[in-house]
Amino acid sequence: MQPSFDYLRTFVAVFRTGSFTSAAKFVGLSQPAVTSQMQALERQLGYPLFERHGRRTSPTARAQALAAKVAPHIDSLDAITDRDDDLPPEQARVIHLGGPAEYLSIRVIPLLSQLTESKVEFRVSFGLADKLLSDLSVGIFDIVVSAIYPRLRGIASTPLIDEEFVLVASPRWCDTATDDDNPVTAETLRHVPLVAYGEDLAIVRRYWRTVFEQSTEGLNLVATIPNLRAIADAVIHGLGMSVLPRYLVEEPLRAGELVTLFEPEMAPLNTLHVATQKGILHKDRTVRLVQDALLADAQRTARAS
Question: Exposed, middle or buried, 169 (CB in 10 Å: 0-12/13-18/19+)?
């Protein structure tokens, strides 16, 4: 007996999401129905497809081989029968979008007004990359902007934009950062108060290691603030120096409210990624619409910089 298209489509969803529960949301079935279909498919094929580990599953070697053969064909057929076509004309598609508060607030939220004209509603959440990606993998989010490269099974990603990190302070700290009109060095910067995201100085530590080839030991940490926009405001008002993404401080730099304390030949970069569940872009044109808007905005930003 040849396996049905529905069984194979459900199989691909389980393979990509790593969970019967997540796959059920993806294909519009109940979790027991997904379990029943996979049991029937295993009987038809004559071999097991998944090993269960609590709420998660792992594919057998034969399941991996089957997925490699059938997934491209499933995606092509799903693209022809786009699931958005089933929505009534007056019904809006709700997109659950997650990412870092700073980038979403500055670059993404301003795009929402033009996207809502296409009958799209949004539920936006801020958070850290690991948790957001984990939630994406089980279907809580449709799209995540991630500050780290997504490595979870069942997630596809595209590079979005390179964050350039800059060392900034209010102009009042320029004299403190220099030593008898000599160039700024890592040593002279130890006299400037430091504002950081957290106690581990993750962003600052990377900057110091990349630019000065030194540790952050001895820096004068005066405050930790777990929000980059709030750090920028604190630094503008003279609290000290910090390392921040350039997109976040472009306006204050142009206005003279902030200055760069050091201009390295090669600034540290971090690539942001836009992540979705694998296969969703082929079957959900609304997710494609939103991702395309994010990528287009990132390209415009890169050209303007």
Answer: buried
